[in-house]
Specification:
The protein has 348 residues and is an alpha/beta fold. The chain contains twelve helices and 15 strands.
Length: 348
């Protein structure tokens, strides 16, 4: 039986939702991840430091006994946000960045940024503090094809931001295209990117060929096989600019299987195992620890975790359905038998 032991990994892009769903989402991530950058796009987004404090407390209430899980909080940028809030965030020990959602780009982004130039004063303040800017990098113009939104965002907005704020740490979240891989590879060291398991596993044929599969619908949307191969090469390259971010984003089956289904893939129940499957198939298991446990922590200037996780080659079945109260959720790889399984090595 093959197995590897790695430093406990972190999830640098995670949606935990709120309310009764936390009882399901928090344990799913705390199962193997030690820390997570928690996204602020709730139905009532996390805009202030005090809101982030309250949300963090609600998350911590759901951490299973005997497990350590540290939610690293973020704020939701808005056009009219005060630079004073950035100053408060920088002084707070639990705030690790601010998230840029172009208005209308994804779930609960209607209150996001309408004009990116309006938030330049916020970005300047963040650059002064070297506070990370986390970007959902897609334009939302109706005349831009959905498969081109990431590439257009790079040219129209990301390049000017990088040029104007060279000291600003930037995480280009959940990149999906060869264009994005090339951009991050060539950018200065203050620019990094997260890569999801589902964008490594699937291309747009998975979503569309033979029928529409709503549980594979996410934003940014799955792209071409050429793009997937570029992401695979980046993730397994050993380049510190690329690190793990699941973008696990649950929606109920009713929300997914509707006339206007929600975007998001709930990958947390099998995320690390899915990455291991991909890295093994790419003959790169020796690169998984840095991608999952080192590069993200170093970018955020945090110490590496000292606890260990064992990832063992043994079959197990992903649940077909996960419940939170009366709500039901379909996880990624639902009902499938995976050949790698991860478990923390508990000490003390």
């Amino acid at each position: 039986m093959r197995s590897i032991v790695i430093n406990q990994p972190d999830d640098w892009h995670l949606h935990l939702r709120d309310g009764k769903q936390l009882a399901m989402t928090v344990p799913a991530s705390a199962r193997v991840f030690a820390r997570a950058i928690v996204m602020p796009n709730l139905a009532n987004p996390i805009i202030t430091v005090s809101e982030a404090e309250c949300y963090r407390a609600r998350i911590l209430e759901q951490v299973p006994a005997g497990r350590h899980f540290d939610p690293l909080m973020t704020l939701y940028l808005q056009d009219a946000m005060s630079t004073d809030e950035i100053t408060k965030a920088d002084a707070h020990p639990c705030i690790y960045g601010c998230k840029l959602y172009p208005a209308g780009a994804t779930t609960h982004s209607t209150r996001g940024v309408n004009n990116i130039e309006f938030i330049y004063p916020l970005l300047e303040k963040m650059a002064n503090y070297e506070m990370p800017l986390l970007i959902h990098g897609e334009v939302t113009d109706p005349d831009i094809d959905i498969f081109d939104r990431e590439a257009v965002f790079i040219d129209r907005y990301l390049l000017p931001i990088c040029e104007r704020f060279p000291q600003l740490p930037i995480v280009f979240e959940h990149i999906t295209t060869k264009t994005a891989v090339d951009f991050v590879s060539q950018a200065p060291s203050n620019v990094a990117a997260t890569i999801t398991a589902h964008h490594l596993l699937y291309n747009r044929n998975t979503l569309l060929a033979g029928g529409i599969r709503p549980h594979y619908y996410c934003l940014p949307i799955l792209k071409t096989e050429e793009d997937r191969q570029a992401l695979l090469a980046a993730a397994t390259s050993g380049v510190p600019k690329f690190f793990l971010g699941t973008d696990s984003a649950p929606h109920t089956t009713i929300q997914k299987e509707s006339a206007c289904g929600c975007a998001g893939i709930f990958s947390a129940p099998c995320a690390l195992e899915s990455y291991a499957t991909v890295f093994d198939a790419h003959h790169s298991l020796d690169k998984l620890e840095n991608f999952a446990s080192r590069f993200g922590a170093e970018f955020y200037r945090l110490p590496l975790n000292t606890q260990k996780v064992e990832i063992k080659q043994q079959e197990w079945q992903v649940p077909a359905v996960v419940a939170a109260g009366e709500d039901k959720f379909i996880p990624m790889c639902a009902g499938e038998t995976l050949t790698w399984q991860a478990k923390p090595i508990l000490t003390g």
